[in-house]
Design the sequence.
């Protein structure tokens, strides 16, 4: 479980509450800091969707990877619209959860988009997830998995 989300509640695209202890256990986690008003975010999000789909939804077994979207949108409505219209079938920190500010400070987020890849304890594997996905595609995941030091069921 990614300790950074211990005690929090996440949501999925259907609006269901999700326990991070279960959803993130034994996974590499990408914390995706993004916003609908941000043009580079709107450019990268579809690329991230394809990456996630190929890695998690189209593999058997699915890769041990999950994304948690942390919004910098201006309102709940903007968050919901951007999350539903552009994002993949991953999780999000509710827009109303002020914990997003703690995460932005912890991971030194000064601009969006930013994809921070973390271990289960919340330690950073890379804060350049966006660049690595753009440059390497799926080839970047095995090195994240190795760095995460979790039990592996991934077949590249």
Sequence:
């Amino acid at each position: 479980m990614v300790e950074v989300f211990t005690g929090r509640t996440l949501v999925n695209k259907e609006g269901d509450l999700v326990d991070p202890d279960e959803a993130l256990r034994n996974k590499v986690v990408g914390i995706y800091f993004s916003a609908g008003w941000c043009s580079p975010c709107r450019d990268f999000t579809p690329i991230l969707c394809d990456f996630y789909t190929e890695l998690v939804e189209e593999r058997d077994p699915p890769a041990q990877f999950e994304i948690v979207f942390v919004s910098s949108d201006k309102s709940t409505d903007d968050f919901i619209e951007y999350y539903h219209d552009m994002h993949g079938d991953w999780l999000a920190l509710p827009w109303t959860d002020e914990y997003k500010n703690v995460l932005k400070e912890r991971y030194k987020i000064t601009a969006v988009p930013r994809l921070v890849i973390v271990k289960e304890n919340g330690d950073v594997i890379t804060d350049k997830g966006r660049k690595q996905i753009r440059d390497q595609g799926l080839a970047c995941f095995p090195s994240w998995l190795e760095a995460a030091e979790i039990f592996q069921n991934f077949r590249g």
Summary: The chain has a mean pLDDT of 93. Strands lie at 10-11, 17-18, 28-34, 65-71, 91-92, 114-118, 124-126.
